[in-house]
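Worked Example 4.2. Consider the chain below.
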Amino acid sequence: MSDPEKKKEELEVQASENENIKNNGEVTLSENNHHHRIYLLSVIGEIEGHECLSSNTKTTKYEHVLPKLAEIEDADNIDGVMLLLNTVGGDVESGLAIAEMVASLSKPTVSLVLGGSHSIGVPLAVSTDYSFIVPTGTMVVHPVRMNGMVIGAPPTYEYFKQMQNRIIGFIASHCKAKEDRLEKLMMNTTMLTKDLGTILVGKEAVEEGIISEVGGMKEALGKLHALINSNSKPQG
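Applying the procedure from the previous section yields the following structure tokens:
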């Protein structure tokens, strides 16, 4: 390949990367001395599910994230995944689907909670191999809620209970917190005015066993590089 052709290809790749950052908050990190290719995936705003939200709402669309995760799993040139979280939660089924898919990746994964990871963002935060939260980051653990009209019948409450049990079970199986403690945090009546739940800030999320460690981007990337190195060692 001639120099002009090589330069053109590099510019096209850069343009594609810039467009991906603009549209989806995603980028591949490869300019590091570890020679690792890390896919940085952002979950920000509200997680959009089967219904489209208003155009002025910042959203993460699960129909974009799921194919991307499948592509990452199938790609030989991606060594690990960094998941950045600053979300208020959103569609429960869609958020849980993303969390399950992240947890099923064979590539090393690390999450970093920035502003917050509330509601269904909690399963997302613990779905990775290791998790971090910045000192001022927040997590809100609360029961399943539903917008709009709800039919007050026993089957409806049973459905809510089953969904809540699925969420608690997933969280407990991917962190050190126990199911009974998570349920107690969800049903707390002292922190949220006129609502149930618990707000955890920074190290409180670590003390509860939900998040692995307090730290920022430096610590999160350092841990991911270490996991990739460990993962790439020959077995025997």
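The helical segments are 3-24, 62-74, 92-103, 121-126, 154-173, 179-186, 203-207, 217-231. The longest strand covers residues 38-48. Compare this with Example 4.1 before moving on.
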